[in-house]
Write a structure and sequence with these properties.
By secondary structure, the protein is an alpha/beta fold. The chain has two domains: about 50 residues, Spermidine Synthase, Chain: A, domain 2 (Roll), CATH 2.30.140; about 220 residues, Rossmann fold (3-Layer(aba) Sandwich). The chain contains ten helices and 13 strands. It has a seven-stranded mixed β-sheet, with helices on both faces. It has a four-stranded antiparallel β-sheet with strand order 3-4-5-6, with no helix packed on it. A two-stranded antiparallel ribbon has the order 1-2. Strand 5 and strand 6 form a beta hairpin. The radius of gyration is 18 Å and the shape is globular. The chain binds S-adenosylmethionine. The site of S-adenosylmethionine has 24 residues, from strand 6, strand 7, strand 8 and helix 5. Keywords: Polyamine biosynthesis, Spermidine biosynthesis, Transferase. It catalyses: S-adenosyl 3-(methylsulfanyl)propylamine + putrescine = S-methyl-5'-thioadenosine + spermidine + H(+). Homodimer or homotetramer. One of its GO terms (biological process) is spermidine biosynthetic process. This is Polyamine aminopropyltransferase.
Length: about 280
Protein backbone atom coordinates (compact mmCIF):
# COMPACT_ATOMS: atom_id res chain seq x y z
CA UNK A 1 0.00 0.00 0.00
CA UNK A 2 1.65 3.27 -0.99
CA UNK A 3 -1.13 5.78 -0.36
CA UNK A 4 -1.57 5.92 3.40
CA UNK A 5 -3.86 8.94 3.40
CA UNK A 6 -6.43 8.48 6.15
CA UNK A 7 -4.21 6.06 8.09
CA UNK A 8 -2.20 6.67 11.24
CA UNK A 9 1.19 5.08 10.58
CA UNK A 10 3.49 4.13 13.44
CA UNK A 11 7.16 3.80 12.53
CA UNK A 12 8.69 2.77 15.83
CA UNK A 13 11.01 0.16 14.34
CA UNK A 14 13.54 0.40 11.51
CA UNK A 15 11.89 -2.21 9.29
CA UNK A 16 8.37 -2.69 10.59
CA UNK A 17 5.44 -0.29 10.69
CA UNK A 18 1.80 -0.56 11.69
CA UNK A 19 -1.13 1.46 10.45
CA UNK A 20 -4.56 2.13 11.91
CA UNK A 21 -7.34 3.55 9.80
CA UNK A 22 -8.42 6.97 10.96
CA UNK A 23 -12.16 7.39 10.74
CA UNK A 24 -11.79 10.71 12.49
CA UNK A 25 -8.98 12.80 13.94
CA UNK A 26 -10.32 14.10 17.25
CA UNK A 27 -7.21 15.95 18.35
CA UNK A 28 -3.77 16.79 17.00
CA UNK A 29 -1.35 19.09 18.81
CA UNK A 30 2.12 19.59 20.30
CA UNK A 31 2.13 19.58 24.13
CA UNK A 32 5.64 21.02 24.49
CA UNK A 33 6.87 17.54 25.48
CA UNK A 34 5.53 15.49 22.59
CA UNK A 35 3.01 15.42 19.71
CA UNK A 36 -0.31 14.18 20.93
CA UNK A 37 -3.06 12.85 18.69
CA UNK A 38 -6.35 11.04 19.15
CA UNK A 39 -7.94 9.24 16.27
CA UNK A 40 -10.98 7.02 16.02
CA UNK A 41 -10.73 3.54 14.52
CA UNK A 42 -13.70 1.22 13.98
CA UNK A 43 -12.11 -1.77 15.74
CA UNK A 44 -10.04 -0.11 18.45
CA UNK A 45 -12.21 2.90 19.25
CA UNK A 46 -10.30 5.98 20.33
CA UNK A 47 -6.54 5.69 19.96
CA UNK A 48 -3.98 7.96 21.66
CA UNK A 49 -0.59 8.37 19.98
CA UNK A 50 2.44 10.24 21.30
CA UNK A 51 5.05 11.19 18.72
CA UNK A 52 3.30 8.84 16.31
CA UNK A 53 3.47 5.79 18.59
CA UNK A 54 0.29 4.12 19.84
CA UNK A 55 0.06 4.53 23.62
CA UNK A 56 -3.40 3.30 24.35
CA UNK A 57 -6.58 2.29 22.56
CA UNK A 58 -10.05 1.92 24.03
CA UNK A 59 -10.29 -1.52 22.43
CA UNK A 60 -7.32 -3.36 23.91
CA UNK A 61 -6.10 -1.27 26.85
CA UNK A 62 -7.64 -3.68 29.35
CA UNK A 63 -5.00 -6.33 28.65
CA UNK A 64 -2.08 -4.02 29.34
CA UNK A 65 -3.59 -2.31 32.38
CA UNK A 66 -4.89 -5.45 34.03
CA UNK A 67 -1.59 -7.29 33.63
CA UNK A 68 0.56 -4.46 35.00
CA UNK A 69 -1.65 -3.98 38.07
CA UNK A 70 -3.35 -7.20 39.17
CA UNK A 71 -0.27 -9.40 38.69
CA UNK A 72 1.97 -7.49 41.13
CA UNK A 73 -0.86 -6.43 43.48
CA UNK A 74 -2.26 -9.96 43.88
CA UNK A 75 1.24 -11.50 44.01
CA UNK A 76 2.08 -9.11 46.85
CA UNK A 77 -1.07 -9.95 48.76
CA UNK A 78 -1.27 -6.86 50.94
CA UNK A 79 -0.39 -3.92 48.70
CA UNK A 80 -1.59 -0.66 50.23
CA UNK A 81 0.67 1.89 48.61
CA UNK A 82 1.16 1.95 44.86
CA UNK A 83 3.41 4.17 42.71
CA UNK A 84 2.72 4.60 39.00
CA UNK A 85 5.36 6.30 36.85
CA UNK A 86 3.84 7.72 33.65
CA UNK A 87 0.34 6.40 33.13
CA UNK A 88 -1.09 9.75 31.97
CA UNK A 89 -4.24 8.26 30.45
CA UNK A 90 -5.38 7.07 33.89
CA UNK A 91 -5.99 3.43 32.95
CA UNK A 92 -3.33 2.10 35.29
CA UNK A 93 -4.65 4.15 38.21
CA UNK A 94 -8.18 2.92 37.42
CA UNK A 95 -7.18 -0.74 37.69
CA UNK A 96 -5.01 -0.27 40.81
CA UNK A 97 -7.83 1.60 42.57
CA UNK A 98 -10.24 -1.26 41.97
CA UNK A 99 -8.54 -2.99 44.90
CA UNK A 100 -10.28 -1.82 48.08
CA UNK A 101 -7.13 -2.81 49.97
CA UNK A 102 -5.14 -0.17 48.13
CA UNK A 103 -5.08 2.91 50.33
CA UNK A 104 -2.97 5.23 48.24
CA UNK A 105 -1.84 5.58 44.63
CA UNK A 106 0.79 8.13 43.67
CA UNK A 107 0.97 8.72 39.94
CA UNK A 108 3.93 10.67 38.59
CA UNK A 109 3.35 11.84 35.02
CA UNK A 110 5.72 14.24 33.26
CA UNK A 111 3.12 15.72 30.93
CA UNK A 112 0.05 17.46 32.38
CA UNK A 113 -1.17 17.76 28.79
CA UNK A 114 -1.65 14.00 28.54
CA UNK A 115 -3.72 13.93 31.73
CA UNK A 116 -5.95 16.89 30.85
CA UNK A 117 -6.42 15.65 27.42
CA UNK A 118 -7.19 12.04 28.44
CA UNK A 119 -9.84 13.30 30.86
CA UNK A 120 -11.51 15.09 27.99
CA UNK A 121 -11.04 12.71 25.07
CA UNK A 122 -10.57 9.30 26.70
CA UNK A 123 -12.87 9.38 29.76
CA UNK A 124 -13.63 5.67 29.40
CA UNK A 125 -10.01 4.83 30.11
CA UNK A 126 -9.59 6.62 33.43
CA UNK A 127 -13.25 5.91 34.29
CA UNK A 128 -13.29 8.31 37.24
CA UNK A 129 -9.84 7.38 38.61
CA UNK A 130 -8.69 11.02 38.64
CA UNK A 131 -11.53 11.85 41.07
CA UNK A 132 -10.68 9.08 43.54
CA UNK A 133 -9.43 10.65 46.81
CA UNK A 134 -6.86 7.87 47.13
CA UNK A 135 -5.05 9.18 44.03
CA UNK A 136 -2.22 11.69 44.36
CA UNK A 137 -1.31 13.01 40.92
CA UNK A 138 2.18 14.54 40.68
CA UNK A 139 3.26 16.31 37.50
CA UNK A 140 6.99 15.71 37.43
CA UNK A 141 9.69 13.68 35.70
CA UNK A 142 9.38 10.16 37.12
CA UNK A 143 13.17 9.80 37.28
CA UNK A 144 13.48 12.95 39.37
CA UNK A 145 10.69 11.81 41.68
CA UNK A 146 12.36 8.43 42.13
CA UNK A 147 15.67 10.07 43.04
CA UNK A 148 14.25 12.69 45.41
CA UNK A 149 11.37 10.91 47.13
CA UNK A 150 11.75 9.30 50.55
CA UNK A 151 8.41 7.45 50.44
CA UNK A 152 8.20 3.70 49.99
CA UNK A 153 5.64 1.66 48.06
CA UNK A 154 4.45 -1.94 48.00
CA UNK A 155 4.11 -1.99 44.22
CA UNK A 156 5.82 0.29 41.67
CA UNK A 157 4.49 0.24 38.12
CA UNK A 158 6.44 1.90 35.31
CA UNK A 159 3.85 2.71 32.64
CA UNK A 160 6.18 4.54 30.33
CA UNK A 161 6.46 5.42 26.70
CA UNK A 162 9.17 3.63 24.74
CA UNK A 163 12.79 4.55 25.49
CA UNK A 164 12.82 7.60 23.24
CA UNK A 165 12.19 11.22 24.24
CA UNK A 166 11.09 11.83 27.83
CA UNK A 167 10.66 8.09 28.47
CA UNK A 168 14.33 7.24 27.82
CA UNK A 169 15.42 8.02 31.36
CA UNK A 170 12.92 5.45 32.71
CA UNK A 171 14.97 2.63 31.18
CA UNK A 172 18.31 3.47 32.82
CA UNK A 173 20.18 1.52 35.50
CA UNK A 174 20.19 4.64 37.66
CA UNK A 175 16.41 4.88 37.54
CA UNK A 176 15.97 1.18 38.40
CA UNK A 177 18.45 1.57 41.26
CA UNK A 178 16.45 4.46 42.70
CA UNK A 179 13.22 2.49 42.19
CA UNK A 180 14.57 -0.33 44.31
CA UNK A 181 15.20 2.05 47.21
CA UNK A 182 11.56 3.16 47.02
CA UNK A 183 10.21 -0.38 47.50
CA UNK A 184 8.92 -1.36 50.94
CA UNK A 185 9.78 -4.85 52.28
CA UNK A 186 8.38 -7.51 49.92
CA UNK A 187 7.69 -4.77 47.35
CA UNK A 188 7.47 -5.51 43.63
CA UNK A 189 8.64 -3.40 40.66
CA UNK A 190 7.01 -4.00 37.26
CA UNK A 191 7.87 -2.23 34.01
CA UNK A 192 6.64 -2.10 30.44
CA UNK A 193 9.48 -3.48 28.35
CA UNK A 194 8.22 -3.41 24.81
CA UNK A 195 7.77 -6.24 22.37
CA UNK A 196 10.88 -8.43 22.58
CA UNK A 197 10.53 -9.82 19.06
CA UNK A 198 11.28 -6.30 17.79
CA UNK A 199 12.84 -4.62 20.84
CA UNK A 200 14.97 -7.40 22.30
CA UNK A 201 17.79 -5.15 23.39
CA UNK A 202 15.46 -3.09 25.53
CA UNK A 203 14.46 -6.19 27.49
CA UNK A 204 18.04 -7.44 27.80
CA UNK A 205 19.21 -4.10 29.20
CA UNK A 206 16.44 -3.95 31.78
CA UNK A 207 16.97 -7.58 32.79
CA UNK A 208 20.71 -6.99 33.29
CA UNK A 209 19.90 -4.13 35.62
CA UNK A 210 17.28 -6.21 37.50
CA UNK A 211 19.68 -9.13 37.85
CA UNK A 212 22.11 -6.86 39.66
CA UNK A 213 19.39 -5.41 41.91
CA UNK A 214 16.87 -8.10 42.84
CA UNK A 215 16.83 -11.62 44.34
CA UNK A 216 13.94 -12.49 42.05
CA UNK A 217 13.99 -10.90 38.61
CA UNK A 218 12.62 -11.78 35.18
CA UNK A 219 9.69 -10.92 33.00
CA UNK A 220 6.16 -12.01 32.15
CA UNK A 221 4.17 -11.51 28.97
CA UNK A 222 0.85 -10.67 27.35
CA UNK A 223 -0.22 -9.94 23.80
CA UNK A 224 -1.75 -6.52 23.20
CA UNK A 225 -2.89 -6.25 19.56
CA UNK A 226 -1.83 -2.64 18.94
CA UNK A 227 1.65 -3.11 20.44
CA UNK A 228 2.65 -4.81 17.21
CA UNK A 229 5.13 -7.63 16.81
CA UNK A 230 4.02 -10.31 19.25
CA UNK A 231 3.67 -10.47 23.03
CA UNK A 232 4.87 -7.60 25.16
CA UNK A 233 7.27 -8.18 28.05
CA UNK A 234 6.76 -6.77 31.53
CA UNK A 235 9.81 -6.58 33.77
CA UNK A 236 9.50 -8.07 37.26
CA UNK A 237 11.86 -7.37 40.15
CA UNK A 238 11.48 -8.08 43.86
CA UNK A 239 13.32 -9.31 46.92
CA UNK A 240 10.05 -10.77 48.21
CA UNK A 241 8.29 -14.11 47.66
CA UNK A 242 5.63 -12.77 45.25
CA UNK A 243 6.47 -14.91 42.23
CA UNK A 244 6.12 -18.19 44.14
CA UNK A 245 2.56 -17.66 45.34
CA UNK A 246 0.63 -20.81 44.40
CA UNK A 247 -2.41 -20.69 42.12
CA UNK A 248 -4.80 -21.41 45.02
CA UNK A 249 -3.47 -18.42 46.96
CA UNK A 250 -3.77 -16.10 43.96
CA UNK A 251 -7.30 -17.40 43.26
CA UNK A 252 -8.35 -16.81 46.86
CA UNK A 253 -6.97 -13.25 46.79
CA UNK A 254 -8.59 -12.54 43.44
CA UNK A 255 -12.02 -13.72 44.59
CA UNK A 256 -11.69 -11.83 47.86
CA UNK A 257 -10.86 -8.66 45.93
CA UNK A 258 -14.17 -9.10 44.09
CA UNK A 259 -12.83 -7.64 40.87
CA UNK A 260 -14.26 -8.50 37.49
CA UNK A 261 -11.58 -8.60 34.85
CA UNK A 262 -11.62 -9.12 31.10
CA UNK A 263 -8.11 -10.55 30.70
CA UNK A 264 -6.59 -11.30 34.09
CA UNK A 265 -7.27 -14.64 35.69
CA UNK A 266 -5.06 -16.33 38.29
CA UNK A 267 -4.29 -19.01 35.69
CA UNK A 268 -3.16 -16.40 33.15
CA UNK A 269 -1.12 -14.77 35.94
CA UNK A 270 0.85 -17.96 36.55
CA UNK A 271 1.18 -18.83 32.86
CA UNK A 272 2.39 -15.35 31.89
CA UNK A 273 5.77 -16.11 33.50
CA UNK A 274 6.38 -19.06 31.13
CA UNK A 275 8.76 -17.67 28.52
CA UNK A 276 9.24 -18.77 24.91
CA UNK A 277 12.77 -19.77 23.89
CA UNK A 278 13.56 -16.61 21.92
CA UNK A 279 12.68 -14.49 24.96
CA UNK A 280 14.64 -16.66 27.41
CA UNK A 281 17.68 -16.14 25.20
CA UNK A 282 17.39 -12.38 25.65
CA UNK A 283 17.73 -12.71 29.42
CA UNK A 284 21.23 -12.57 30.92
N1 LIG B 1 0.97 1.91 27.35
C1 LIG B 1 1.87 2.74 26.63
C2 LIG B 1 2.92 1.97 25.86
O1 LIG B 1 3.39 0.96 26.31
O2 LIG B 1 3.25 2.41 24.78
C3 LIG B 1 2.46 3.76 27.52
C4 LIG B 1 1.44 4.47 28.34
S1 LIG B 1 1.49 6.22 28.30
C5 LIG B 1 0.33 6.46 29.51
C6 LIG B 1 3.04 6.58 28.97
C7 LIG B 1 3.14 7.89 29.71
O3 LIG B 1 4.45 8.06 30.22
C8 LIG B 1 2.85 9.12 28.86
O4 LIG B 1 1.71 9.77 29.38
C9 LIG B 1 4.12 9.98 28.99
O5 LIG B 1 3.86 11.36 29.06
C10 LIG B 1 4.69 9.46 30.30
N2 LIG B 1 6.13 9.67 30.49
C11 LIG B 1 7.12 9.59 29.56
N3 LIG B 1 8.30 9.87 30.13
C12 LIG B 1 8.08 10.14 31.45
C13 LIG B 1 8.92 10.49 32.54
N4 LIG B 1 10.23 10.66 32.41
N5 LIG B 1 8.32 10.67 33.76
C14 LIG B 1 6.99 10.50 33.92
N6 LIG B 1 6.15 10.18 32.90
C15 LIG B 1 6.69 10.00 31.68
Amino acid sequence: MTDMTGWSVERLHADHAQALREDKVLYDSETGHQRLRVIENPTFGRVLTLDGVVQVTEGDEFIYHEMLTHVPILAHGNAKRILIIGGGDGGMAREALRHDNVEHVTMVEIDAGVVDFSKKYLPNISAGAFDDPRLNLVIEDGAKFMKDSDETFDVIIVDSTDPVGPGEVLFTDTFYGHAKTRLAGGGILVTQNGVPFLQGEELTNTMRAFQALFDDWGCYMATIPTYAGGPMAFGWGTDGPGRDEPLEVLSARFHKAGIETKYYTPEVHKAAFALPGYVKKLLP
